[in-house]
Automatic annotation (TrEMBL):
Residue ranges of every copy of the NB-ARC domain listed in the record: 121-264
Organism whose genome encodes this protein: Urochloa decumbens
A Pfam family that the UniProt record links to this protein: NB-ARC
Taxonomic path: Eukaryota, Viridiplantae, Streptophyta, Embryophyta, Tracheophyta
Official protein name in the record: NB-ARC domain-containing protein
Length: 428
């Protein structure tokens, strides 16, 4: 009965939010704004209650995802209306690490798959593919799922594997690791519990190599074991024993909710309307990148000053426009595709650095002390070729993302003018 009631309230709240959003898009009377605020509060209560429950009904989870997205749209429209009159002031000013945002329902879908026992599933080893573009949050989602107490109690051990290019060495190492775990499991008191194997596919998909990996898993994994595979490629989907989970970038409205929470923390944004308006404009430029959002929010929260935030906005606006003009694509889009990108430096305009390669490092590997934030927004002086730490997870498996970069000097106006006067004439 509680589930049916929650579903009805969720549907009513979703429809109400959509109705008031359509109203608030036009000139807004205060009573419409107040009504939307009350509906959003009701939706938030439903979401908070759902977070405290173990929901196994997949249709209910999908309905909650719709409600969550509608709620984010509603909050975004409220903030847009509330702070839009600060545009003119902003123009003049131009001259939470352990938490997973916006993926709780998706995490519950994964948990349901892991805890579900199907006596009729035959000899197939349960496999859930999780697919989506680069830096969309696949690894983070799985890390939070593996942190769940029910999941950790359900499996005797959780194993993490990274397959970069499906080389013979990588596949052979996987097979050997499975055989070793099989021997250890047979002598373990938890023999009645299966293993959870998490495989992150980073490079291009190779079907023959994957078949070797899956055969090794079936041969050595005990009954009750499950596999989660994350990949950018949709080719892994057909190998799943259940429907694949596809992650997409956060909508602009959801991304603003995420960015605002990171930037302001426990500070009420309503107390800083000019800063909030600047933050909204900055968030629009970050193309829903979770890594860019974390770095930028950290930069802003370190300096709660409207002039500094205006400077960051101006820097981003000029840099992104120049990059698109020179290379045809937004630098964040290139980084998400694991392609090289040129990065401007806010404090040293005469320099930029190019991200040449991206790597994911395990907890055992040494990572650089210098961070992406230090180079882009600070005044550090790295060597011509260097590595920067871009992201460091604070939950298992504690992976880090490292960029290999190279400093590049920009041609200044003065040097161009000097070359133009070399033959005795000046170009103005």
């Amino acid at each position: 009965m509680d589930t049916i009631l929650s579903a009805v309230l969720s549907e009513l709240s979703t429809r109400s939010i959509h109705f008031f959003i359509s109203k608030i898009s036009k000139p807004v009377p205060l009573d419409v704004e107040d009504c939307l605020r009350r509906v959003l509060l009701r939706a938030q209560v439903i979401m908070d209650e759902a977070m405290g429950r173990h929901i196994t009904n997949q249709a209910m989870l999908l309905q909650l995802i719709v409600l969550r997205d509608a709620m984010h749209r509603g909050y975004y429209m409220l903030d847009t209306f509330r702070y839009q009159h600060h545009d003119e002031e902003e123009t003049k000013d131009e001259d939470l690490a352990n938490c997973m945002f916006g993926r709780q329902m998706e995490a519950q879908l994964v948990i349901n798959f892991l805890l579900h026992t199907d006596r009729h599933e035959g000899e197939d080893l349960g496999l859930l593919p999780i697919v989506g573009p680069g830096q969309v949050g696949k690894t983070t989602l799985v890390a939070h799922v593996c942190k769940n107490e029910r999941v950790r109690g359900h499996f005797s051990k959780i194993l993490f594997f990274y397959i970069h290019n499906f080389t013979n060495d990588e596949v052979s190492n996987f097979e050997k690791a499975c055989a070793t775990e099989h021997q250890n499991h047979m002598s373990n008191s938890n023999i009645d519990r299966g293993l959870l194997v998490v495989v992150e596919l980073i490079g291009d998909f190779n079907e023959d190599a994957w078949n070797r990996i899956y055969r090794a898993s079936k041969q050595y994994m005990p009954t009750g074991s499950k596999i989660i595979v994350t990949s950018r490629s949709d080719k892994i989907v057909k190998f799943g024993t259940t429907q694949a989970l596809t992650l997409k970038y956060l909508s602009h409205e959801s991304y603003w909710y995420f960015f605002k929470t990171l930037t302001f923390g426990s500070t009420d944004p309503k107390m800083h309307p000019r800063l909030t308006r600047l933050a909204m404009l900055i968030s629009k430029m970050l193309n829903s990148s979770l890594i860019a959002g974390n770095i930028t929010a950290c930069v802003l929260s370190d300096n709660f000053d409207v002039h500094f935030w205006g400077k960051v906005l101006t820097f981003f606006r000029g840099y992104f426009q120049r990059h698109v003009s020179r290379f045809g694509e937004h630098p964040i889009d290139l980084l998400c595709q694991n392609k090289p990108a040129h990065i401007a430096r806010m404090t040293i305009p005469s320099e930029e650095f190019m991200v040449q390669r991206q790597n994911e490092c395990s907890l055992e590997e040494e990572v650089p002390q210098i961070t992406f934030k230090d180079v882009m927004f600070g005044s550090v002086k790295p060597h011509e070729k260097f590595e920067v730490l871009t992201w460091k997870a604070r939950i298992p498996p504690y992976y880090s993302r490292v960029y290999t970069c190279e400093i590049q000097k920009l041609k200044t106006t003065a040097s161009k003018r000097k070359r133009s006067t070399k033959n005795g004439s000046t170009l103005c």
